[in-house]
């Protein structure tokens, strides 16, 4: 890629040209991609930008507060929308991965569309990056933020999408984030999928099940923070398994731990975590989560697996 | 325990006393427990023993032929019953672990009961060991071969159960097996559950799904034969996950690999297999089984998990 500074200059000019004096909304999930896109647009349009954080109930522990505070500290107009009930309602009873993605995507666009109407904007910024575009075109991923690339008319949702990062891979995005002066917790943070923890709850997504995977995610992130790996997370299975708690036979939950090395998410390698650490993760998860009796570690590269399970 | 030789002497006398000149059937799954019990009873009653191998369609690759040949080579009267269709019919549509165990157990006893009637026997030998008894009494396990211990009247099945190994733990059983001159492939072999691969197919047990887990089991056993671990196997999940095969996004099967160190199956530790070996197992399973996109490794001890998943 061209140097971050030049990239930013060009992107800012292009955004100014596209958006003009109009108001813009930036969809902010808290990930490095959407945050970098937001800061880039803020640099271009200043007060005309409204960053919107949709609290879908599917974020990591402490994430909604962290994202909103970070944006506001940087002087960005920020709206936080509590849509937890709406998302859980939309996901209720759905167990198929594609149906869940679709339900999330539809709810996401509808919620944004509503805010966009309220704010009377025509432009919405999203943090789509090159890996998303490639995989969506190849049919490997059904990405909620690259509608234009796959030929779906975004006008049915009532707004036009601006994607300033779509020519960059992840390392390029991080360079831009650093150059824009984003906090290190953002510029260096791990990727997190748009549909968030809903992809990490196999089977039906309920508030109770999201709470389990959120806690397991927190443990995995704490225990693997020193590894410098690309992505570290937990998945709650729909399958159950036998175990023993307090001397009694129980039929409990299964958590899989996934830690991968990758440059750009297009390919990835399962990490050879030291067993002492790995067994300790299993111990913490089964001790701190009363319903969990079993922990598995994902030993598959991408391909043939994907990084996420859904 | 007392020495194997003395144990055998006492057991043989007791069996002779119990059984007298009657005919006996021995339920032979092929595991070290049932094989040792069978050889012990054969030593006591000789020609009056009929070893019965029920082919339930749920055994490991090559297992039915191996068990029957081994018994016959040792001069033991052996009947092999093809009950594959019956067992799959009984398991059809059942997804709950306890329902599956119950369906297996009922079919097992009915099939044996039928043979016992044909052969006009009153006694049936089973390879119950002490760990089974302890865990059934504690409610940790629902074991199909310890009915008497949990107060179920075996007479409803039409015969009486003889369990000569119920005072021994696994290492004691192996000593007895060696002393009785069983082939090393039997005396040193890994434990294998009575309900066999049906416990290793989470969700519905169909011939197609058993074929997948059987092949995965074969790969795991081949690759871990040198480890000297207590039990090594594969589990097919009911959950599915995304993956990439031949460049296309697919929604495929998940296999978990389980390898544990244990003395007596009452407690167990997940084995710290070298990653080179572990990743190679994942590679072979996802390459040799077209529907499998993801391999997991079980990192949980017993407790809080059990060795098997169901």
Q: Radius of gyration of chain A over alpha carbons?
A: 20 Å
Q: What's the N-to-C terminus distance of chain A?
A: 30 Å
Number of helices of chain A: 10
Largest interface: A-B, 48 and 48 residues
For the report, how would you describe the main beta sheet of chain A?
A: 5 strands, parallel
| Sequence of secondary-structure elements of chain A | HEHEHEHHEHEHHHEEEHE
What fraction of residues of chain A sit in β-strands?
15-25%
Strand order of the largest sheet of chain A: 3-2-1-4-5
Going by helix content, strand content and strand pairing, the class of chain A is alpha/beta
Task: Explain this structure.
The structure is a homodimer of 310-residue chains. Chain A is α/β, with parallel strands linked by helices and 310 residues long. Helix content of chain A is 41%, strand content 19%. The first copy, chain A, contains 10 helices and 9 strands. Chain A has helices at 4-19, 32-45, 63-73, 84-91, 97-118, 130-138, 170-179, 184-187, 207-224, 275-288; strands spanning 24-27, 49-55, 78-82, 123-125, 160-162, 231-245, 248-261, 269-270, 292-298. In chain A, the strands form 2 sheets. Chain A has a 5-stranded parallel sheet, with helices on both faces. In chain A, strands 6, 7, 8 and 9 form a 4-stranded mixed sheet that branches. In chain A, strand 4 (123-125), helix 6 (130-138) and strand 5 form a beta-alpha-beta unit. The longest helix of chain A is centred in the middle third of the chain and has 22 residues, at 97-118. Chain A is globular. Chain A starts with a helix and ends in a 12-residue tail after the last strand. In chain A, 52% of the residues are buried. Mean pLDDT of chain A is 90; it is low at 144-152. The interface between A and B is large, with 48 and 48 residues. Strand 9 of chain A pairs antiparallel with strand 9 of chain B.
């Amino acid at each position: 890629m061209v140097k971050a500074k030049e990239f930013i200059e060009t992107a800012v000019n292009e955004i100014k040209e596209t958006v003009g004096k109009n108001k813009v909304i930036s969809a902010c999930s808290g990930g490095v991609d959407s945050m970098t896109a937001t800061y880039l647009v803020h640099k271009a349009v200043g007060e005309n930008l409204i960053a919107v954080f949709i609290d879908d109930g599917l974020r990591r522990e402490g994430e909604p507060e962290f994202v909103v505070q970070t944006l506001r500290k940087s002087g960005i107009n920020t709206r936080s929308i509590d849509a937890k009930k709406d998302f859980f309602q939309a996901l209720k009873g759905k167990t198929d991965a594609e149906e869940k993605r679709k339900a999330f995507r539809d709810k996401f666009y509808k919620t944004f569309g509503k805010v966009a109407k309220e704010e009377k904007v025509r432009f919405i910024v999203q943090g789509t990056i090159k890996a998303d575009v490639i995989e969506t075109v190849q049919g490997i991923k059904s990405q909620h933020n690259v509608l234009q690339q796959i030929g779906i008319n975004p006008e049915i949702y009532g707004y036009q999408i601006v994607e300033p990062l779509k020519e960059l891979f992840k390392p390029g995005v991080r360079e831009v984030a650093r150059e824009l002066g984003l906090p290190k917790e953002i510029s260096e943070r791990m990727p997190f999928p748009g549909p968030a923890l809903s992809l990490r709850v196999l089977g039906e997504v309920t508030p109770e099940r999201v709470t389990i995977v959120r806690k397991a995610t927190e443990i995995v992130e704490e225990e693997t923070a020193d590894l410098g790996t690309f992505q570290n997370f937990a998945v709650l299975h729909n399958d159950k398994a036998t175990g023993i708690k307090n001397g009694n036979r129980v039929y409990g939950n299964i958590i899989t731990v996934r830690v991968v090395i990758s440059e750009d998410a297009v390919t990835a390698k399962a990490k050879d975590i030291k067993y002492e650490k790995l067994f300790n993760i299993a111990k913490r998860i089964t001790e701190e989560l009363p319903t969990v009796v079993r922990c598995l570690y994902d030993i598959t590269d991408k391909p043939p697996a994907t990084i996420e399970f859904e």
